[in-house]
Specification:
The protein has 327 residues and is α/β, with parallel strands linked by helices. The protein has two domains: 128 residues, Rossmann fold (3-Layer(aba) Sandwich), CATH 3.40.50.720; 183 residues, NAD(P)-binding Rossmann-like Domain (Rossmann fold). The chain is built from 14 helices and twelve strands. The strands form two sheets. The chain has a seven-stranded parallel beta sheet, sandwiched between helices. A five-stranded parallel beta sheet has the order 2-1-3-4-5. α1 runs parallel beside α13. The chain is globular, with a radius of gyration of 21 Å. The two termini are 33 Å apart. The chain binds 2-keto-D-gluconic acid.
Length: 327
Amino acid sequence: MIKPKILVARAVFPQTLERLSQHFDVESNQADETWSKAELARRLADKVGAFTTGSDRIDAEVLAGAPHLKICANMAVGYNNFDIPAMTARGVMATNTPDVLTETTADFGFALVMATARRIAESEHYLRAGHWTKWSYDMFAGSDIHGATLGILGMGRIGQGIAKRGAHGFGMNVIYHNRSRLSAELETDCKARYVSKEELLKTADHLVLVLPYSAASHHAIGAAELAQMKPTATLVNIARGGIVDDAALAVALKNKQIAAAGLDVFEGEPSVHPDLLTVPNVVLTPHIASSSVPTRLAMANLAADNLISYLTQNKALTPLNADGLAA
Ligand code: 8YV
């Protein structure tokens, strides 16, 4: 039997490839080469399915080179690398990997809050550099987590996970802002109070960004918003680069307009704004919030299952544009 052809655009777990190979004729990128859009389109020319990650842009230009493509399964919950209207117009199903990464990503968000507020990375660099010669009363004195006000911008599943960790684990006072307000039941679960964006910026001791990236959220935190925050406040971004104006943030950190930041995502990543690399009061990690072994496996499995289910039974498990395709 001739198997349908699919492309796995990035290196993945060998067991994911093995599983996909049971159903498909798989071309994969286990060497993890960086492909241009033209290269991606060229490789998609004879494929019906694609396993993609957040770094693979699927838009009209790529789709033009992929006339047989029926589905792109993203190994990510975020899907700003997909041009959904273009995919829908071409009849290509888009899927993502919600839920399986929620708790792991919330753990990491909270870890960044703690590392940032308690200056863990900065003090570790100091120690490794051999600067630690004596104790001093204010050495790397940061701010408290327990009892502080935790602000969350974007209160989806991951935002709620962070809220629960803060409220139930650390006795934090949790406030949030979101496009839509949560139900009373969810607010009670998260012990979170809905506030305006302005109040969130002004009141939070630790502000965490967990909102999806879109034209509407581009530079949701820029110079004007940073100016509204407390000088003692910290900012954590585990959402997407582009939500924060990184150049403005570097200036705010340098001028101590806010105390510190923790960033897992960057505008134009994997490049990082050079000024962020020179300020000490920022913790920088390379987009690893979902990266625990069990969670990355679960994400890969869900993306693979979407391909298998859609291409063998015409049923996507976690579709993004099913309504558009049905219309
Ligand atoms: C991924 C993420 O690691 O799921 C997301 O939206 O940002 C991360 O979990 C990344 O996008 C790679 O696909």
